[in-house]
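FAQ: What does the model actually see?

It sees only this:
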Amino acid sequence: MTTSAPLFPVYYLRQIADQLTSGGADAGAWLARHGLQPDQLSDTSVTLPFPAYHALLTDAVATSGEPALGLLVGARLPINTHGVLGLAAMSSSTLRQSVEMLDRFVSLRTPLVAISHATAEDGGALRLRIDPALPLGDIHQLVMEAVTLTVKNLLDFIAGARHIAAVGFGFPEPPYAALAQDLFQCEVLYGQQWTGFDLPPAVLDQPLKLADPTTFSEAAAMCQREFDRLRQPASMVARIRRAMLASPGQFPSLQVTARLFNCTPRTLHRRLLAEGTSFQQLLDQVRHRLACEHLKAGKLSVQEIAYALGYTEIANFRRAFKRWEGVPPSAFGDSARAVREVI
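And it is asked to produce this:
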């Protein structure tokens, strides 16, 4: 069974946008450079392939001019931003159970890292490790700092106390090490063989004040269902749509797309027919979606949108849009802006 490449949800980008704004940068322009609008960051259905996500994070560091961006973003993440996984962790009976949930289901929140845990051979501390789940390149330090601070803050909150004496990172000490120690509120060690921290044995199995067996059972079951769903291979339609959205304006042709998926154009056409569509229909759907988003945003002219969607003639775009929506693109954009002004 072939596993499709992971997709990255955009909801954690909201904290990056907030941090950029706090630092005086233009978060809207940062998102726009990557084909996103601020309102999309609240849409749990919006996902990105890794190259697009990587480009966003790299650009965020450059835009902010802040080398400690990962720490500042990690500090911004409130406890209630971690979805059903956070709910399962917070309603666990013990810290050990919370760690087990994070270990098993962290990929539901971000495919960037993997969490693992093991108890020392002498029955002592439980070591929680955070490792990259794929090569992160120049965003490695940003991601590891943000995730490690987020996980520590979550476990501190669940425990109702700070039991972690030190945090370790597998990279050299940065110039902002003092800031890291202030944010982690414990000793921070660099140049370690692993990234993560130890939990003392005395606190691992103590009952937690927030424990709620019913809520935990329901949340854990929801995590499992979502985990099982994500492990299923994506349909050919979903994989091609994802490839198109990853390169708006330079949509791959049928021939190029077939090569991407290691098949012939004829085979690709046959697979799409089996799923009830065609390559041209998929392309029209993606162009339709992007056109509506651009027109609602109101930042590009109709001509610029047509060009961005790969149309060489603006008249062809106008005809296509009227077929999709029943009105010309200019009328659709005027209507969307009027609704936004009323709201």
